[in-house]
Amino acid sequence: MTDPSVAPPGKHVMSCFVQYAPYKLAEGTWDDQREAFGDNVIDTLSEYMPNLKKIIVGRQVLTPLDLEREFGLTQGNIFQGELSLEQLFFLRPVPGWAYYKTPVDNLYMCGSATHPGGGIMAAPGGLRAR
């Protein structure tokens, strides 16, 4: 957006985040299915943006396996645990630890694995600092 080296002049960068892609596939591997998955995402978006396929000049598809390999995110989970009902609010990361203090003296947990979760950038650390 402010770095002209990331896209050719007059072009833009679009990032598509697809949540809940499975780590283990029913058939094949992510290495084999990466491009088909990317095609499926573009096909779905093209239903709402018909010109999309014609204007793409390059793409990078990162699967859950790629996120694990490249960034060390276990099973490609950027939220350090599922954002499901049993792991939200006062239950995140476990019951009794939602307010950052742990049973270990002077150990506080802040990050995506804690309340409010990974979808609110920097919120856990900011909340703990207060």
H/E element order? HHHH
Sheet with most strands: none
Q: Got a strand count?
A: 0
Based on helices, strands and strand pairing, what is the structural class? mainly alpha
Alpha carbon gyration radius: 19 Å
Task: Please state the average pLDDT score.
Answer: 85
> For the terminal residues, how far apart are their CA atoms?
32 Å
Write down the overall geometry.
globular
Question: Which quaternary structure do these chains form?
Answer: single chain
Low-confidence stretches: none
- Per DSSP, the total helix count is 4
Approximate strand percentage: under 5%
Helical content class? 25-40%
Description:
The chain has helices at residues 30-46, 52-55, 64-71, 123-129. The chain has 4 helices and no strands. With 130 residues, the chain is an all-alpha fold.
